[in-house]
Amino acid sequence: MAAKKSPFFDTATTLGKVVAFFGISALCGVLAAGMLVPVAAIAKTGLTTGNNIVSALPSSFEKLPISEPSTILDANGKTIANFYQQNREPVKINDISPYMRKAIVSVEDERFYEHKGVDPKGIARAVVGNLTSSSRSGASTLTQQYVNNLLVNNQELTGSEESTISGQKDYAAKIRELKYAVAIEKEMSKDEILEGYLNLVLFSGREYGVQAAAQRFYSVDAKDLNVQQSAMLAGMVQLPNVYNPINNPERSLDRRNKVLGNMYRTGAINKKEYDDAVKSGLELKPSTSPSGCSSAQDNAYFCDYVVNLILSDDTYGKTKEDREGLLYRGGLTIKTTLNSELNKKAAADARKAIDPNAKSNKDIHSSIVSVQPGTGNILTMAQNTTYGPDSKNSGSSTYYNFAVERSKGGAGGFQGGSTMKPYTTLGWLTEGNRMSETINAKKQAFQPGTKFRASCLPGGTATVGSKWEPKNASPGFYRRMTVDTGLYWSINTATVQEAFRTDLCTIADYTKRLGVLDQDADNGQPGPISPANPSFIIGSANITPLSQAAAFATFANKGEYCKPRAMTSVVDKDNNEYKVPQETCSQEIDPAYVADLNGTLKKIATKRVSKGRVEGPIAGKTGTNNYATSTWFVGYTTGIATATWVGRLNGKAANETNQLHGAIINDEQAPKMVDSSTYAAPLWVDFMEEAVLQYERKGFGKAGKRPAPVVPDTPDGAMSDGEKEDAAAAKARAAAEARARAEAEARAEAEAKRKAAEEKKKAEEEKREAEEKKEAEEKKEAAEKKKAEEDKKKSQKSSKPRPPKSSD
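RE: above sequence
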């Protein structure tokens, strides 16, 4: 059974309060710095003296950083999005309206500039009020409130559950608050305390600090708040929800006028200022500053990509929770590579290509992403949908970013179709072949057991498992043709024959070196494209638009690949810099091969796609998978490379049921044959027509001296007699070309040596002549100097005065 309380020490009774006040106050007296401890608090602690109470507490506490929003900026410094748990923008005291400073002092602590952290008069008034009524009133000074807000902030950062809410604190917590207030008054000036308080205090919802509150309710800066606005905001801090002017305008107006009365009574404003202010209405002009990528509008998917980069990088914290805390509380300024104005056009063009509001387009979407050659900077990243949940299952909104991989918020990529063919051509060129060489594109079927050369696989071959029948979209191309023609018209059987005479590992290696990964290589995880299945050469692997844009930027940059990057700098509120990926570029393709490849890709973009609309030089490649569930165009200038994709989100189900041929798209029936020229290429043209004007458009260069060919052996039994003859002829041509090149190089070397000898001889003669000339000039100069000295002596002798003659 609990011991029965004595009414003399039970502070819940009036008698207990009186005894506590007179008895314990006599023991404690007045503490250092004039601090009068609330007597009821002392009685409740069970401590015998005020000195014991105060000395038991530490003299100060750690003031942890206050929460500040993080901001993502575009390449020009324009805000894309803010992230916060507490919307706060700290400002200096001089950037806070004098009216606001006077208002908060008048209503919360009118003796703020007189006391030293604790107000004995206020405590006495509160004690008397608490003794004589059942209600409780506080006596917290602004300094105490500042301490309390700091403690709340500390608890949020450390996860403490100790209550610091007024009316819920125990007496030890109250005494602690009093002592810290006295300590802070010794460390900080009054203006510093007032500035700290006005930047820390909650005004409404997630609006913390006077600057955020001024913007929220009046769309002005804190320095521009007038009398009535200041009074309204000052009145809110006591009960932010009750006095919220949007939700409770009448209460807010009444509270504001009471604050104005306090300001007039304390001399903070004069009679005219009071009269004018009290007659005015609330005159709100609210604005919002939403948190997160949802507020980034057309830039939302790029924003989401940046957030995923930060949350997956231990540079910003050991755990995901740490990284989230830094993003939402750490005041980061994240500068990015995004051209937000151009991205706005990209989003508009994506919606124009595939209308997200068309009922027929539930699973049909578009994506567009641009990368800068030579830097890897991501310039645009947009799609036809709105960033958000697809609550109505309409397809008009989604969180999926179609341009990137799953781990960065993506949908897992799409079949690349014929946009993969340039990698086969690069392999073909690497082995010493030419774009002008003829291949036999008649073959339409490869039987099980057919072997393709693949030096990196066991046995050096890749074997066809089941019968493989690559078909052409146009029936008239099952014939002999040049490699250039096959690539220009995107003929599957031509590409297969190229690959058949090329090492598949060389082709696959190019995709790896240029960052094009199979998004399902390892149980749904991205990895290098495997050469084991020859069908990868015509686009069976699921790849991302971002990776293709970056890879094709390599063709624009003479074979130098730059990893795509989205951030250029990350700095926190204390100007601490975080490490971000720098421009990372490497030469991955011989420029001679790129020049040969560009010769064909230029014709595709110029003649088949742009048709005069996009100012060149431009180049690119079309792409369509089976049943057109994934269609592409990836094209570039030397200044910008852009991948456009149009297809089904469920495009991996590339079957007749899912096909886009003749489907209802944009609420209209599509052509019977849908390919890249139907939606994806027009989207690219619409966007690039203006985009290319913002970036350089130099020529792609000419082929230089070609490197020595690589002509590996072909596995036995892999080719027919005719194909063997073609291969033998190719080897013979390659050998002849190699000999011719060697002879030419020898002649060039001999000529270079001859020229070098002549130049050396000429240089020696010029040197000898220069030395002789210098010697003659030195002799001449010495002679002139000698003559000048002689002339000087003669002049001095003739001018010397003669002695006077003596008289007779």
